[in-house]
Amino acid sequence: GRYYLTKRIQLFAFIPYVYNDMNGTDQVVSAQGLGDISVMANYLLINTGEEKTTFRHTLIAGGGIKLPTGRYDLEDKGKIINRNFQMGTGSVDFNVNAVYTMRYKKSGVNLETGYKINTRNSYNYLFGNQYRASAQLFFWQKAGFLSFLPHGGVNYEQAAMHLDGDIIQTNTGGTAWLASGGMDIYVSRFTVGFNYQKPISQRYNSDVTAEILSKGRWTASLTYNF
Questions:
Q1: 3-class DSSP state for residue 85?
Q2: Distances (CA, A) of 161 to 24, 78, 125, 167, 171
Q3: First to last CA, the chain
Q4: pLDDT, tens digit, for every residue of 121-169?
Q5: 3-state secondary structure (DSSP) of residue 116
Q6: How far is 68 from 36, CA to CA, in rounded Å?
Q7: Is residue 18 scored above 80 in pLDDT?
Q8: pTM of the predicted model, to two decimals?
Q9: Contacting residues for 13 by C-beta, under 8 A, at least 6 apart
Q10: CA distance 57 to 109
Q11: What is the pLDDT of residues 30-71, one digit of tens each?
């Protein structure tokens, strides 16, 4: 959800409901429930998007907090489930982000970056901090009452290794580059979005007994603008 407190200040709330399925050699688990709720605020630093010019750009930056509302202590056969498959992290974490959009006539580029700073939970477990960045090209196209926004670009993800107490956890953290493409369709107050990301380079931290590979990712969204 997004609410404009003023013309320059946007408030966001994210309330995730999580479905996780894990089919491993040691644990086979399906779990679902409320995830970790996040609250953020962004400030519009630059905005020429409403001006009737061929060249427009906007710059938004802000941050927020993630609360430990999701379960993080689920067990299977008396053993704690893999931390990455819990509903939440059990920690209070902090996010900072920035978004820059430049548009010339019907074409443009969107640049995003964000950093997540994690703290320890009650088990003294620390998820590694995470960094992300993306660059996307887009093109506006209208057809009757429909507006189309095809887009494509590249994403970068980096995560530090986890710590259990002072012990570095194997098979955590790493980096990945992903090519992405998708389409947003605008109909009245509704927006339907589709996006696909395919890894083009990845290097996750794994030990000699494991191989960690990220596969393609599909995302679908439905948004209603009040």
A1: helix
A2: 21, 25, 11, 10, 8
A3: 10
A4: 999 999 999 999 999 999 999 998 999 999 999 999 999 999 999 999 9
A5: strand
A6: 5
A7: yes
A8: 0.90
A9: 1, 37, 38, 39, 40
A10: 10
A11: 989 999 999 999 999 999 876 677 889 999 999 999 999 999
